[in-house]
Amino acid sequence: MLSLGIDIGSLSTDVVLMNDKREIVASEVIATGASSKKAAEKAFQKVLEVTGLSERDIDYVVATGYGRIRVPFAREVVTEITCHAKGAHYFFPRVRTVIDIGGQDSKVIKVDPNGNVIDFVMNDKCAAGTGRFLEVMARTLEIELEEMGPLSLQGADKLSISSLCTVFAESEVVSLIGADHKREDICRALHIAIAKRIAAQARRVGVEEQVVMSGGVAKNVGMVRELEKLLSTRLRMAPDPQIVGAVGAALIGLEGAGKVSPQVIQVKLPVEEKPGEEITVGTGLKPAPTLEESSLPKMGYLCTYTPIEVIRAAGFHPVREKKAKKAEGLAEEHLCTNICPYIKAAMEEKLSGSLEGLEGIVFMNSCDGMRRLYDAWRRLDGDKKFNYILDLPKTNDAAAVNYFSLLIRNFKERLEKCYNRKITQEELHKSIVLYNKVREKVKLFLQKQWSGYLSHSGYEIFSLMKRGINAVPEKFHDYISHLLKEDKTASNEAKSLPRLLIWGGILENEEIIKTIEEAGARVVADDLCSGSRFYDAVVEVQDDPFMALAARYLKKSPCSRMVNVFDRIHRILSIIEKHSIHGAIYHTLKFCDHSLYDYPIFKKEFEKKNIPLLHLTCDYTPSAHGQIRTRVEAFLEQLQNVKW
Ligand code: SF4
Ligand code: SF4
Questions:
Q1: b or e along 272-296 (b: 16 or more beta carbons within 10 Å of the residue's beta carbon)?
Q2: For residue range 345-388, what is the model confidence (pLDDT) as tens digits?
Q3: SS3 for 575?
Q4: Is residue 153 exposed (0-12), middle (13-18) or buried (19+ Cβ within 10 Å)?
Q5: Residue 24: exposed, middle, or buried by beta-carbon count in 10 A (0-12, 13-18, 19+)?
Q6: What is the DSSP annotation of 8-29?
Q7: Which residue would you say has higher pLDDT here, 174 or 550?
Q8: Beta carbons of 14 and 29 less than 8 angstroms apart
Q9: Mean pLDDT, residues 99-106 taken together
Q10: pLDDT at 293 (0 to 100)
Q11: Structural fold of domain 2-80+244-264
């Protein structure tokens, strides 16, 4: 039996042919070039040439690496995270930590005694600290890439590179060359900077002996030296560290080949290169496009702590501004670069003129970024529009509820003054009852779905919850009532998939949930402020509507801007227990300090309870890029080794 592992990276395509005695029969490394598919075909043909075999002799092909979905003749597709873990275990059975620095990304993988992934971290989608980064720096220094490592060994540790952004680092290197610093010293500084970043990544998963380094950068002696120093450990390397991922893929192929009928491999299939199949998940739930159409003027808001009942009582339709958008750079004229992408997207929306139809906008003092957004907004608008900021306590004790009730009352009075109208107790009461009705209905609907009497996908449920936020409440209530009449239990196939929870702050991009489900899991619950958390808890009607509103908003399921992290942990763990969750995904936006600070605390708690956890940090763009897909797929592969 022969199994072929093929690892398509951004710089090189590596192929390993393995027999059923787990011996490497042949291996090849070629440059990937512009087409992953062509590189895969070429590398395969090369292996056939050197072994004198034909396509028919190969029993099973497993593709991995960033171009893995572009190998039409692959029987199985597995992420490089799982493959590097398996490959490293093949060469070093006592491995517990794998550091893989490839052309496009760097990863640190924690493995169990059988070579299964327990945890991993991956660099962001920029090239900092990867083979591509070194390639650009070699070009700037006018030396060959292979010379970088040996040159850095000769350099002194006296310079530093402050940025690992490829563009900024390149200009730093140009300045150092201009200042007549020795190339050896510059090289050393570059290696130290990258090693520091990788070491920090490694500490996040916890470095355990033995540590194996794989990927093309493992051949760089300078990088190995700096990493060994920083991690105070010896790095082990396979004879050719570049083929470790392909070895792992070939090993998975041997396991797979034993379970299926032989495959006839045709390398040159007449398949068009396309960005992955469109897979339909769920029932195709499509709410009417008119759900958001209201006869009332619109008032915008940005945070789900905003008491929308007051806005509606004042005669406006509250609309949460949340369009997922890639930053065009317009916002940076008014806000700093390192600000949360949600805030940037809101500013971009404003500057592009698409918020002109709003009567005004209500801000919450939810974080410093939001405060600064309000300042910038007012500078732009002058007093032309109703721009209002509400303070928000960070606790929910009696004093906080009392304080917040006074703020909500002030907000109502400000609306009255600005629009020269009285908001009566009755109007406020009606609005509270209306939103309560929606929340009650949604609760019933979600209970029905969770109990298995409805069969919508997690993607559909999240998209629906998200749409409901800006829907006219009466229409959304009726639509949910209509859905509640359905009865369709989930298929057995769906029931056998791993059950996931996704939680965090704002997730606007439902494609992420689609990606998770297309990878083979079910998102059965969310706790996101742009999802079902919006509907959590009703307002307990009482004589003082402001106290009632304040209590609801401060006591509903909290987001990370509230101080009591243990309350959050407790709530999330009870969701996990209630829905028999197999793994959880924590979603944060870049630069959102609140949610990023929560992560290490959650991670510790989850480790204690053996709950698999994946952290996804995203940038508020409307697509789910390749790295998110890889992380999700690797997480699901990791779940296959967890008994539930
Ligand atoms: S994450 Fe919290 S603070 Fe941020 S918008 Fe959502 S509810 Fe508001
Ligand atoms: S996601 Fe975080 S940083 Fe962004 S607005 Fe919300 S709390 Fe502020």
A1: eeeeeeeeebbeeeebeeebbebee
A2: 999 899 988 888 999 999 999 999 999 999 999 999 887 889 99
A3: helix
A4: middle
A5: middle
A6: E-SSEEEEEEEETTS-EEEEEE
A7: 550
A8: yes
A9: 84
A10: 93
A11: Nucleotidyltransferase; domain 5 (3.30.420)
Tell the residue nearest (CA) to atom 8 of ligand 2: 367
Write the burial class of residue 486 (CB in 10 Å: 0-12 exposed, 13-18 middle, 19+ buried). middle
Determine the atom of ligand 1 nearest the C-alpha atom of 304: 7
User: What spacing in Å lies between the alpha carbon of 104 and ligand 2's midpoint?
Assistant: 29
Q: Atom 7, ligand 1: which residue's CA is nearest? A: 304
Question: Is 192's pLDDT higher than 80?
Answer: yes
pLDDT of residue 96: 96
CATH architecture of 289-639: 3-Layer(aba) Sandwich (3.40)
Provide the whole-model pTM. Answer: 0.81
Q: Which amino acid is at 256?
A: G
Report how far residue 343's alpha carbon sits from residue 333's, in angstroms, rounded to the nearest whole number: 13
Let me know if the fold of 121-237 is the same as that of 289-639.
no
Q: Tell me which of 349, 364, 509, 592 to substitute to probe ligand 2's pocket, judged by most ligand atoms within 8 Å of the beta carbon.
A: 592
For residue 108, CA distances in Å to 17, 82, 238, 464 come to: 26, 11, 16, 36
Residue nearest to atom 1 of ligand 1 (CA): 505
Give the residue, out of 302, 304, 553, with the most ligand 1 atoms within 8 A of its beta carbon, to mutate for a pocket test. 304
The yes/no answer on whether domain 121-237 falls in CATH 3.30.420.40 is yes
**Residue 343: strand, helix, or coil:** helix
SS3 640: coil
Distance CA 118, CA 99 (A): 14
Provide mean pLDDT across the span 466-480.
96
What mean pLDDT comes out for the span 10-14? 87
Give residue limits of the domains in the chain: 2-80+244-264, 121-237, 289-639
For residue 260, what pLDDT band results from cuts at 50, 70 and 90?
low
Classified as helix, coil or strand, 612 is coil
pLDDT at 118: 92
24-46 residue pLDDT tens: 999 999 988 878 888 888 989 99
Question: Hey, what are 97's tokens?
Answer: 């930590």
Q: Calculate how far, in angstroms, residue 606's C-alpha sits from the geometric centre of ligand 1.
A: 23
The 10s digit of each residue's pLDDT in 262-298 is: 555 555 444 444 443 344 456 667 777 789 999 999 9
What is the per-residue pLDDT across 136-164, written as a single tens digit (0 to 9) for each? 888 888 888 888 888 889 988 888 887 77
Residue to mutate, 561, 562, 568, 586, ligand 1, most ligand atoms under 8 Å from C-beta: 561
Residue nearest to atom 2 of ligand 2 (CA): 592
